[in-house]
Amino acid sequence: MDSKSVSSRLRELVKFLSTVQGDLSNVSGPPSLLAPSSVVEVGHCWAQRPAHFAAIALEPSAEKRSLLVLQWFLIALRSQLYVAGGPKVSIKKPLNAFLGELFLASWTDPTTHATTKLVAEQVSHHPPITAMHLSDEAHGIRAEGYARVEMTFNGTVNIRQVGHALMHIDAYDEDHLVPLPDVKVRGFLSGCVYPEILGTYTITSSAGYTTEIKFSGEGIIRGKRNTFEAKIFRKDDPAKRSIYEAAGVWSDAWTVKDARTGEVLQNYVVDADENTPAPITITSVDEQDPWESRRAWGGVLNGMQAGDMRQVLAEKTKVEQAQRQMRAFEASRGHAWEPLLFRSIAAEEHGVFHELAEGTGLALHHEKTKGVWKLDDRRVKGLQRPFREGLTPLGY
Predict the structure, then answer these.
(1) 218 falls in which pLDDT band (50, 70, 90)?
(2) DSSP annotation of 30
(3) 347-379 residue pLDDT tens
(4) CB 69 within 8 A of CB 178
(5) What is the 8-class DSSP label of residue 389?
(6) d(CA 181, CA 203)
């Protein structure tokens, strides 16, 4: 599709969004503006560099572990937010995940052989909530998170992520509370849609270190797209004297320094060959369970690959209508949908969050996310295909 067609469709989308009141999270975009992946795949951004994830667990210094967690957070941002696009290519909207949709994959670094495993499930559709669990069992490190997405439009699409992630390192019995930043999607009228993060976010560790990240962006007169400044300091230091600092453009490159000596520790370039993501390992589509994302959306993805937007719309509508019929059937019988791999716990059981969030302004908002979502290890260990005997996303 040429740039003029893209610009025209984006303007049509703007007109449509302007007529929609309230939350847009379950509103689907035109087929031509959809990404060839579902929301449940978004967690790949945290998992696709397993060597860096393992390095956090291998680092003996607590302050350096906080720096590595910051790097892990920053490195994930571009692939998380520039969906099916890039700094010079318009991003697209992921497919809205259906209730019960799963994404199971792993990544192995070809040099270090570190491996990360990702489990993701759409645990709610109204409101849309995705739960994810990332682990490297060999190195004793895991991260778990969930998010409800709320979207509004006022000339810019405003995406609020209600949720958080928690990382745990077994060797040090250490936890890190990681925020999920809000995003603004801009550039509709220019024909190149891009994400922007604004505001200040905090990562805290149980070892006593705080990371403060200030995001800014492109303005009418000044400012550069996707810029940030970050510093790490001891939580008990009222002066917030920096130990490490990082600054640059999270979608392109940044510099990390030791603030005490001024020494440059790293110049990170996202597109550098040495920072290429590890290859994904995933069950072939033909062998996947009907509830696994790439098989469930197979007809849609094939249509996108062929450039057949009629097929995309027809296959997408088939899944969506079947899901509506399933919800109506369950409601008529008083049945409640039960997630396969994650369970919801009460807010008061989430003590680690409350300890790390103290003084950060970060709140749980469990009433908006149907509780706090955690992986049920027992269910994962016993998982066998078919996952839901006699039931597929297309109906009972």
Answers:
(1) confident
(2) P
(3) 888 899 999 999 998 999 999 999 999 999 999
(4) yes
(5) T
(6) 11
Contact 104, 379 (CB under 8 A): no
- Residue 180 is which amino acid? L
Amino acid identity for residue 101 in this structure: E
Query: In this structure, are strands 115-124 and 264-269 parallel, antiparallel, or unpaired?
Result: unpaired
For tokens 């891009």, name the residue.
194
Nearest to 179 by CA among 150, 194, 200: 200
Tokens read off for 237: 């230091």
Is-contact 249 232, C-beta < 8 A? no
Asked whether 321 and 313 are in contact (CB, 8 A), the reply is no
159 versus 347: the higher-pLDDT residue is 159
Element (H, E) at 112: none
For residues 38 and 234, give the distance between their C-alpha atoms in angstroms, rounded to a whole number.
39
Terminal C-alpha separation, the chain: 38
Measured from the Cβ of residue 196, the count of other Cβ atoms closer than 10 Å reads 21
Minimal CA–CA distance to 226: which of 236, 217, 234, 239? 217
For residues 193 and 220, the answer to whether their CB atoms sit within 8 Å is: no
Query: What gap in Å lies between CA 43 and CA 250, rounded to an integer?
Result: 17
Give dist(CA 114, CA 116) in Å, integer: 7
What letter represents residue 212's amino acid? E
149 Cβ contact list (under 8 Å, min separation 6):
25, 39, 127, 128, 130, 159, 160, 161, 162
